[in-house]
From TrEMBL:
HAMAP family: MenB. Residues 305-327 are annotated as: Disordered. This is 1,4-dihydroxy-2-naphthoyl-CoA synthase. The keyword Lyase applies. It comes from Coffea canephora. One of its GO terms (biological process) is menaquinone biosynthetic process. PROSITE patterns: ENOYL_COA_HYDRATASE. InterPro entries: ClpP/crotonase-like_dom_sf, DHNA-CoA_synthase_MenB, Enoyl-CoA_hyd/isom_CS, Enoyl-CoA_hydra/iso, Enoyl-CoA_hydra_C. Its EC number is 4.1.3.36. Pfam families: ECH_1. One of its GO terms (cellular component) is cytosol. Residues 316-327 have a biased composition (Basic and acidic residues). GO terms for molecular function: 1,4-dihydroxy-2-naphthoyl-CoA synthase activity.
Length: 327
């Protein structure tokens, strides 16, 4: 509802330089001859604005204070918005707890196929940890001890078996920059600004903040980004491979939703496996575990998998001889 208006500002042109233009896959606003036959069969991706409905989780738990959680009516899109625009959407522990509840719900809801992660307003996606809550052992708000619970959120997004798209207007800096990097895709408005600030404010994220960045933009650029802690424009970030596409601010949500709808036409299982496979190489045992878990999930649906289970329950020997040893 209000969210489209939240991203309105005078327009600029879509950045023409997109690495994907040189490959087989073109961004969704470009008509590629490779897509023509697919589009003849499936038609254009609808461009009407979604109808967002606010989601309130478990009635016994207090409503969200720091985030807005919405789902598009009749479509498989969830939208999770950090709602602290007066602090440039900086997160405190409470914000992270709420985000984790919402992401968990979106994961569990089988009608949701893709999740948009964004910040309220046009000034910022997220400016990282709220420094006024930072103490000697992390960030502390309602209770008296510190924590770095955003690290758990990063892992949650990374392992979530559905695509998460960061929709970035304004600043994505510090821990907010790491959050967009752990998302599967990033669509940036042309007013977006990217960068790390840790070394300037006495902090650093040497976990995903360093390793995923290095993987995304290469070690030299990652060092530059961390050591100098400079800010980069949306088009610079796009050239570095930090973002998938830059669009005019007023088109940000429209384009992001278009990407969501396009993905929603495709096989959820194929996408799930692609996500876990792409992460597996970097995520070590945890990455392999996610990929292997997907394989088990699918195997349970086969006759061969069921032969073992039902034989066990019927106290008889399983007969696996009927299943081919495929080459
Ligand atoms: C983001 C900005 C560049 C925006 O600048 P702008 O000029 O547009 O706005 P203001 O500076 O005037 O900000 C408006 C208002 O918001 C307050 N604010 C903004 N960001 C934060 C913040 N992160 N924490 C607290 N408050 C914030 C600001 O003070 C203003 O309030 P007033 O009352 O004064 O009006 C610019 O705001 C900026 O540079 N912000 C700071 C960015 C930053 O350094 N972030 C923290 C990096 S460290 C981090 O995020 C982090 C978090 C973790 O949980 C970690 C966990 C584990 C390892 C590492 C972690 C980590 O590094």
């Amino acid at each position: 509802m209000a969210s489209v208006a939240n991203h309105l500002m005078p327009g600029h042109q879509i950045s023409p330089s997109h690495p994907a233009l040189f490959g087989a896959i073109a961004p969704s606003n470009c008509s590629s001859p490779l897509d023509d036959s697919y589009r003849r069969t499936h038609g254009e991706v609808p461009s009407h604005p979604p109808v967002w409905k606010t989601v309130s989780l478990d009635e016994s738990v207090k409503g969200f204070a720091d985030i807005i959680y919405e789902k598009a009516v009749g479509e498989g899109i969830a939208k999770i918005t950090i709602n602290r625009p007066e602090r440039r959407n900086a997160f405190r522990p409470q914000t992270v707890k709420e985000l984790m509840r919402a992401f968990n719900d979106a994961r569990d809801d089988i009608s949701v196929g893709v999740i948009i992660f964004t910040g309220k307003g046009t000034e910022a996606f997220c400016s990282g940890g709220d420094q006024s809550f930072r103490g000697k052992n992390g960030y502390a708000d309602y209770d008296n001890f510190g924590r770095l619970n955003v690290l758990d959120l990063q892992v949650q997004i990374r392992r979530l078996p559905k695509p998460v798209i960061a929709m970035v207007a304004g600043y994505a800096v510090g821990g907010g920059h790491v959050l967009h990097m752990v998302c599967d895709l990033t669509i940036a408005a042309n007013n977006a600004v990217f960068g790390q600030t840790g070394p300037k404010v006495g902090s650093f994220d040497a976990g995903y903040g360093a390793s995923i960045m290095s993987r995304l933009i290469g070690p030299k650029r990652a060092r530059e980004m961390w050591y100098l802690s400079k800010f980069y424009t949306a088009s610079e970030a796009e050239k570095m491979g930090l973002v998938n596409m830059v669009v005019p601010l007023e088109k940000l949500e429209q384009e992001t939703v278009k990407w969501c709808r396009e993905m929603l036409r495709n096989s959820p299982t194929a996408i799930r496996l692609c996500k876990s496979a792409i992460n597996a190489a970097d995520d070590g045992h945890a990455g392999l575990q996610a990929l292997a878990g997907d394989a088990t999930l699918m195997f349970y649906g086969t006759e061969e998998g069921n032969e073992g289970r039902s034989s066990y329950l019927q106290h008889k020997k399983p007969d696996f001889s009927k299943f081919p040893r495929l080459p």
